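C-alpha coordinates for chain A. Residues wanted.
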Protein backbone atom coordinates (compact mmCIF):
# COMPACT_ATOMS: atom_id res chain seq x y z
CA UNK A 1 0.00 0.00 0.00
CA UNK A 2 1.35 3.42 -0.92
CA UNK A 3 1.63 5.78 1.99
CA UNK A 4 0.39 9.26 1.26
CA UNK A 5 3.08 11.91 1.17
CA UNK A 6 2.53 14.35 4.03
CA UNK A 7 4.27 17.70 3.52
CA UNK A 8 4.83 19.92 6.56
CA UNK A 9 6.45 23.35 6.63
CA UNK A 10 8.44 24.06 9.81
CA UNK A 11 9.29 27.64 10.83
CA UNK A 12 11.85 28.60 13.49
CA UNK A 13 12.43 32.17 14.70
CA UNK A 14 13.07 31.91 18.44
CA UNK A 15 16.44 33.67 18.57
CA UNK A 16 18.71 35.00 15.83
CA UNK A 17 18.18 32.46 13.05
CA UNK A 18 15.27 32.69 10.63
CA UNK A 19 14.70 29.17 9.35
CA UNK A 20 12.23 27.18 7.28
CA UNK A 21 12.17 23.52 6.36
CA UNK A 22 9.95 21.12 4.46
CA UNK A 23 9.59 17.56 5.66
CA UNK A 24 7.88 14.78 3.72
CA UNK A 25 6.90 12.02 6.11
CA UNK A 26 10.10 11.63 8.17
CA UNK A 27 12.52 12.94 5.54
CA UNK A 28 13.82 16.49 5.22
CA UNK A 29 13.42 17.90 1.70
CA UNK A 30 14.83 21.35 2.46
CA UNK A 31 16.39 23.09 5.45
CA UNK A 32 17.03 26.79 4.93
CA UNK A 33 18.62 29.12 7.49
CA UNK A 34 19.31 32.84 7.37
CA UNK A 35 21.69 33.56 10.24
CA UNK A 36 21.77 37.14 11.39
CA UNK A 37 25.31 38.50 11.15
CA UNK A 38 24.27 41.87 12.57
CA UNK A 39 24.73 40.66 16.19
CA UNK A 40 28.44 39.85 15.82
CA UNK A 41 29.47 43.49 16.19
CA UNK A 42 27.52 43.74 19.46
CA UNK A 43 29.03 40.59 21.03
CA UNK A 44 25.61 39.01 21.58
CA UNK A 45 22.05 38.88 20.27
CA UNK A 46 20.23 42.24 20.30
CA UNK A 47 16.51 41.33 20.59
CA UNK A 48 15.11 44.33 18.71
CA UNK A 49 17.50 43.85 15.79
CA UNK A 50 16.74 40.12 15.72
CA UNK A 51 13.04 40.74 15.45
CA UNK A 52 13.50 43.23 12.61
CA UNK A 53 15.80 40.86 10.71
CA UNK A 54 13.24 38.04 11.08
CA UNK A 55 10.65 40.28 9.43
CA UNK A 56 12.97 40.86 6.48
CA UNK A 57 14.04 37.22 6.18
CA UNK A 58 10.93 35.19 6.76
CA UNK A 59 9.24 35.51 3.35
CA UNK A 60 12.36 34.75 1.26
CA UNK A 61 13.42 31.93 3.62
CA UNK A 62 10.03 30.19 3.38
CA UNK A 63 9.92 30.72 -0.41
CA UNK A 64 13.39 29.17 -0.69
CA UNK A 65 12.41 26.19 1.46
CA UNK A 66 9.42 25.49 -0.82
CA UNK A 67 11.51 25.95 -3.96
CA UNK A 68 14.29 23.65 -2.73
CA UNK A 69 11.74 20.99 -1.78
CA UNK A 70 10.25 21.42 -5.24
CA UNK A 71 6.68 21.81 -3.98
CA UNK A 72 4.15 24.63 -3.94
CA UNK A 73 2.54 26.01 -0.79
CA UNK A 74 -0.77 24.50 -1.94
CA UNK A 75 0.75 21.02 -1.47
CA UNK A 76 1.39 21.61 2.26
CA UNK A 77 -0.65 19.61 4.76
CA UNK A 78 0.20 21.70 7.84
CA UNK A 79 2.42 24.48 9.17
CA UNK A 80 4.48 23.99 12.32
CA UNK A 81 6.11 26.91 14.13
CA UNK A 82 8.20 27.55 17.24
CA UNK A 83 5.88 28.84 19.94
CA UNK A 84 8.66 29.23 22.56
CA UNK A 85 10.83 29.44 24.54
CA UNK A 86 12.83 32.31 23.07
CA UNK A 87 12.88 36.06 22.54
CA UNK A 88 9.33 37.40 22.44
CA UNK A 89 9.87 39.79 19.52
CA UNK A 90 11.51 37.03 17.49
CA UNK A 91 8.87 34.42 18.32
CA UNK A 92 6.08 36.82 17.34
CA UNK A 93 7.35 37.09 13.76
CA UNK A 94 7.32 33.31 13.16
CA UNK A 95 4.08 32.80 15.06
CA UNK A 96 2.17 35.53 13.19
CA UNK A 97 3.53 34.40 9.84
CA UNK A 98 2.65 30.72 10.47
CA UNK A 99 -0.85 31.62 11.66
CA UNK A 100 -1.58 33.80 8.63
CA UNK A 101 -0.25 31.28 6.12
CA UNK A 102 -2.13 28.36 7.69
CA UNK A 103 -5.30 30.46 7.74
CA UNK A 104 -4.83 31.54 4.14
CA UNK A 105 -4.21 27.98 2.95
CA UNK A 106 -6.91 26.57 5.24
CA UNK A 107 -4.61 23.88 6.66
CA UNK A 108 -3.80 22.91 10.27
CA UNK A 109 -1.44 24.96 12.42
CA UNK A 110 0.89 23.12 14.82
CA UNK A 111 2.73 24.77 17.71
CA UNK A 112 6.14 23.40 18.66
CA UNK A 113 8.21 23.69 21.82
CA UNK A 114 11.76 24.62 20.75
CA UNK A 115 13.37 22.52 23.52
CA UNK A 116 11.35 19.45 22.63
CA UNK A 117 12.35 20.01 19.02
CA UNK A 118 16.08 19.98 19.84
CA UNK A 119 15.47 16.52 21.31
CA UNK A 120 13.08 15.19 18.67
CA UNK A 121 15.52 16.19 15.90
CA UNK A 122 16.89 12.69 16.53
CA UNK A 123 13.77 11.28 14.87
CA UNK A 124 14.47 12.80 11.46
CA UNK A 125 15.08 10.00 8.93
CA UNK A 126 18.73 10.33 8.05
CA UNK A 127 21.08 7.72 6.63
CA UNK A 128 23.70 6.62 9.15
CA UNK A 129 21.90 8.11 12.16
CA UNK A 130 20.09 5.83 14.60
CA UNK A 131 17.01 6.90 16.51
CA UNK A 132 17.19 6.52 20.30
CA UNK A 133 14.79 4.03 21.90
CA UNK A 134 12.44 5.17 24.70
CA UNK A 135 13.21 5.91 27.45
CA UNK A 136 16.42 7.84 26.82
CA UNK A 137 18.22 10.80 28.35
CA UNK A 138 18.63 13.96 26.31
CA UNK A 139 21.13 16.66 27.14
CA UNK A 140 20.33 19.93 25.40
CA UNK A 141 23.27 22.29 25.42
CA UNK A 142 23.20 25.63 23.64
CA UNK A 143 23.58 29.36 24.05
CA UNK A 144 20.19 29.61 25.71
CA UNK A 145 19.71 26.31 27.50
CA UNK A 146 21.37 23.49 29.43
CA UNK A 147 19.08 20.66 30.45
CA UNK A 148 19.03 16.94 31.08
CA UNK A 149 15.67 15.52 30.08
CA UNK A 150 14.22 12.08 30.65
CA UNK A 151 12.37 11.27 27.44
CA UNK A 152 9.71 8.63 28.02
CA UNK A 153 7.93 9.19 24.71
CA UNK A 154 7.78 11.86 21.99
CA UNK A 155 5.70 14.22 24.10
CA UNK A 156 6.23 12.73 27.53
CA UNK A 157 9.39 14.43 28.78
CA UNK A 158 10.64 15.34 32.23
CA UNK A 159 13.41 17.86 32.93
CA UNK A 160 15.59 16.23 35.60
CA UNK A 161 18.38 18.81 35.63
CA UNK A 162 19.03 22.31 34.34
CA UNK A 163 21.27 25.31 34.78
CA UNK A 164 20.59 27.61 37.67
CA UNK A 165 22.36 30.54 35.96
CA UNK A 166 24.23 30.69 32.61
CA UNK A 167 23.78 28.20 29.79
CA UNK A 168 26.80 26.17 28.72
CA UNK A 169 27.05 28.05 25.40
CA UNK A 170 27.25 31.27 27.38
CA UNK A 171 30.14 29.79 29.35
CA UNK A 172 31.97 29.29 26.05
CA UNK A 173 30.94 32.68 24.64
CA UNK A 174 31.71 34.69 27.79
CA UNK A 175 35.08 32.97 28.25
CA UNK A 176 35.81 33.77 24.63
CA UNK A 177 34.90 37.41 25.21
CA UNK A 178 37.40 37.59 28.09
CA UNK A 179 40.03 36.22 25.69
CA UNK A 180 39.02 38.65 22.93
CA UNK A 181 37.80 35.91 20.58
CA UNK A 182 34.65 37.54 19.17
CA UNK A 183 31.10 36.19 19.16
CA UNK A 184 30.04 33.40 19.17
CA UNK A 185 33.28 32.05 20.65
CA UNK A 186 32.27 28.39 21.09
CA UNK A 187 33.48 27.18 17.69
CA UNK A 188 36.72 29.25 17.99
CA UNK A 189 37.54 27.79 21.41
CA UNK A 190 36.83 24.31 20.02
CA UNK A 191 39.32 24.90 17.20
CA UNK A 192 42.04 26.46 19.37
CA UNK A 193 41.62 23.77 22.05
CA UNK A 194 42.67 21.11 19.55
CA UNK A 195 46.27 22.32 19.75
CA UNK A 196 46.35 22.90 23.49
CA UNK A 197 46.97 20.98 26.69
CA UNK A 198 43.64 20.49 28.54
CA UNK A 199 45.42 20.11 31.85
CA UNK A 200 47.65 23.19 31.55
CA UNK A 201 45.44 25.27 33.83
CA UNK A 202 42.99 24.09 36.44
CA UNK A 203 39.61 25.66 37.07
CA UNK A 204 37.52 24.38 39.93
CA UNK A 205 34.20 22.83 39.01
CA UNK A 206 31.12 24.41 40.59
CA UNK A 207 29.46 22.51 43.40
CA UNK A 208 25.82 22.16 42.50
CA UNK A 209 23.74 19.42 44.03
CA UNK A 210 21.93 16.80 42.00
CA UNK A 211 21.57 17.14 38.27
CA UNK A 212 21.52 20.94 38.08
CA UNK A 213 24.32 22.98 36.51
CA UNK A 214 25.96 26.30 37.25
CA UNK A 215 28.36 28.10 34.91
CA UNK A 216 28.52 31.67 36.19
CA UNK A 217 31.21 30.85 38.80
CA UNK A 218 33.43 29.35 36.14
CA UNK A 219 33.19 32.49 34.03
CA UNK A 220 34.22 34.63 37.05
CA UNK A 221 37.09 32.25 37.89
CA UNK A 222 38.37 32.52 34.32
CA UNK A 223 38.08 36.32 34.41
CA UNK A 224 40.09 36.61 37.66
CA UNK A 225 42.65 34.10 36.42
CA UNK A 226 43.20 36.03 33.18
CA UNK A 227 43.34 39.38 35.00
CA UNK A 228 45.96 38.05 37.42
CA UNK A 229 48.10 36.42 34.75
CA UNK A 230 48.02 39.33 32.31
CA UNK A 231 49.07 41.67 35.10
CA UNK A 232 52.23 39.60 35.53
CA UNK A 233 52.67 39.04 31.79
CA UNK A 234 50.74 41.27 29.35
CA UNK A 235 51.31 38.68 26.61
CA UNK A 236 49.89 35.81 28.69
CA UNK A 237 46.79 35.26 26.52
CA UNK A 238 48.70 35.41 23.26
CA UNK A 239 51.42 33.03 24.49
CA UNK A 240 49.05 30.48 26.02
CA UNK A 241 45.87 30.76 23.97
CA UNK A 242 45.65 27.10 22.91
CA UNK A 243 46.30 25.84 26.44
CA UNK A 244 43.79 28.29 27.96
CA UNK A 245 41.08 27.24 25.49
CA UNK A 246 41.83 23.54 25.95
CA UNK A 247 41.67 23.93 29.74
CA UNK A 248 38.38 25.85 29.66
CA UNK A 249 36.83 23.34 27.28
CA UNK A 250 38.10 20.43 29.35
CA UNK A 251 36.52 21.89 32.51
CA UNK A 252 33.17 22.45 30.80
CA UNK A 253 33.16 18.93 29.36
CA UNK A 254 33.98 17.43 32.77
CA UNK A 255 31.02 19.30 34.29
CA UNK A 256 28.66 17.95 31.60
CA UNK A 257 29.98 14.37 31.65
CA UNK A 258 29.90 14.17 35.48
CA UNK A 259 26.23 15.18 35.50
CA UNK A 260 25.44 12.67 32.77
CA UNK A 261 27.14 9.95 34.83
CA UNK A 262 24.98 10.88 37.79
CA UNK A 263 21.84 10.99 35.62
CA UNK A 264 22.48 7.51 34.20
CA UNK A 265 23.11 6.24 37.72
CA UNK A 266 19.91 7.78 39.09
CA UNK A 267 17.65 6.70 36.22
CA UNK A 268 19.32 3.47 35.09
CA UNK A 269 19.02 4.77 31.50
CA UNK A 270 22.15 4.46 29.37
CA UNK A 271 20.90 5.74 26.03
CA UNK A 272 22.03 9.36 25.77
CA UNK A 273 21.18 11.86 23.02
CA UNK A 274 22.56 15.37 22.77
CA UNK A 275 21.30 18.45 20.95
CA UNK A 276 21.77 22.21 20.72
CA UNK A 277 24.64 24.30 19.35
CA UNK A 278 27.25 23.13 21.85
CA UNK A 279 26.76 19.51 20.74
CA UNK A 280 28.80 20.54 17.69
CA UNK A 281 31.81 20.69 20.03
CA UNK A 282 34.42 18.09 19.05
CA UNK A 283 35.55 17.57 22.66
CA UNK A 284 32.01 16.78 23.82
CA UNK A 285 31.49 14.41 20.92
CA UNK A 286 34.71 12.60 21.79
CA UNK A 287 33.86 12.47 25.51
CA UNK A 288 30.50 10.87 24.69
CA UNK A 289 32.18 8.30 22.45
CA UNK A 290 34.61 7.54 25.29
CA UNK A 291 31.58 7.11 27.59
CA UNK A 292 30.42 4.24 25.37
CA UNK A 293 33.58 2.33 26.23
CA UNK A 294 33.96 3.48 29.81
CA UNK A 295 30.39 3.44 31.08
CA UNK A 296 28.50 1.26 28.59
CA UNK A 297 26.50 4.18 27.16
CA UNK A 298 24.91 4.24 23.73
CA UNK A 299 25.12 7.80 22.48
CA UNK A 300 23.27 9.70 19.76
CA UNK A 301 24.73 12.84 18.21
CA UNK A 302 22.62 14.54 15.53
CA UNK A 303 23.82 15.49 12.10
CA UNK A 304 25.69 18.79 12.35
CA UNK A 305 22.99 20.87 10.59
CA UNK A 306 20.37 19.70 13.11
CA UNK A 307 22.40 20.65 16.22
CA UNK A 308 22.22 24.45 16.09
CA UNK A 309 18.88 26.21 15.75
CA UNK A 310 17.14 25.03 12.60
CA UNK A 311 13.65 24.48 11.21
CA UNK A 312 14.07 20.80 10.31
CA UNK A 313 13.65 19.98 14.00
CA UNK A 314 10.44 22.04 14.04
CA UNK A 315 9.20 20.24 10.93
CA UNK A 316 9.79 16.75 12.41
CA UNK A 317 7.82 17.69 15.54
CA UNK A 318 5.14 19.08 13.22
CA UNK A 319 5.01 15.74 11.44
CA UNK A 320 4.82 13.72 14.69
CA UNK A 321 2.01 15.95 15.97
CA UNK A 322 0.25 15.81 12.60
CA UNK A 323 0.11 12.01 12.87
CA UNK A 324 -1.54 12.41 16.28
CA UNK A 325 -3.95 15.08 15.02
CA UNK A 326 -2.53 17.47 17.63
CA UNK A 327 -3.33 20.86 16.08
CA UNK A 328 -3.37 24.42 17.45
CA UNK A 329 -6.17 26.97 17.43
CA UNK A 330 -5.79 30.24 15.51
CA UNK A 331 -5.81 32.20 18.79
CA UNK A 332 -2.60 30.56 20.05
CA UNK A 333 0.08 33.02 21.21
CA UNK A 334 3.89 32.90 21.42
CA UNK A 335 5.28 32.03 24.84
CA UNK A 336 8.79 33.27 25.70
CA UNK A 337 9.15 31.05 28.76
CA UNK A 338 7.43 27.93 27.49
CA UNK A 339 8.45 24.85 29.50
CA UNK A 340 8.95 21.27 28.30
O1 LIG B 1 21.60 26.07 19.53
P1 LIG B 1 22.29 27.33 19.16
O2 LIG B 1 22.63 27.58 17.72
O3 LIG B 1 21.45 28.58 19.59
C1 LIG B 1 20.84 28.70 20.82
O4 LIG B 1 19.68 28.26 20.96
O5 LIG B 1 21.52 29.25 21.71
O6 LIG B 1 23.62 27.41 20.06
C2 LIG B 1 24.53 28.47 19.94
C3 LIG B 1 25.65 28.24 20.95
C4 LIG B 1 26.62 29.39 21.07
O7 LIG B 1 26.82 29.66 22.44
C5 LIG B 1 27.90 28.86 20.43
O8 LIG B 1 29.08 29.41 20.95
C6 LIG B 1 27.80 27.40 20.76
O9 LIG B 1 26.43 27.08 20.59
N1 LIG B 1 28.61 26.56 19.87
C7 LIG B 1 29.70 25.86 20.30
C8 LIG B 1 30.22 25.21 19.14
N2 LIG B 1 29.44 25.54 18.07
C9 LIG B 1 28.46 26.36 18.53
N3 LIG B 1 30.24 25.74 21.51
C10 LIG B 1 31.33 24.97 21.62
N4 LIG B 1 31.90 24.32 20.58
C11 LIG B 1 31.39 24.41 19.34
N5 LIG B 1 31.96 23.76 18.31
ZN1 LIG C 1 18.02 26.25 20.43
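Reply:
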Amino acid sequence: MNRQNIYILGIESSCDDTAASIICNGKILSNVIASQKIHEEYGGVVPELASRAHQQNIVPVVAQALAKANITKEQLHAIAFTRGPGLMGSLLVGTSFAKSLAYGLNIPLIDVNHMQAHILAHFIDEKGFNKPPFPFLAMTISGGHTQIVKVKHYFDMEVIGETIDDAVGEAFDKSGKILGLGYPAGPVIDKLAKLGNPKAFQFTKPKVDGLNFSFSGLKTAILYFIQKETKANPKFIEENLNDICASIQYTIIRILIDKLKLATKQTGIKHIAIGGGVSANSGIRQALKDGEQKYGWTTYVPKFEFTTDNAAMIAIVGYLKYLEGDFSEQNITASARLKI
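The pocket of zinc ion (ligand 2) is lined by residues 114, 118, 142, 144, 276, 309 (CB under 6 Å). Residues 172 and 214 are 13 Å apart (CA to CA).
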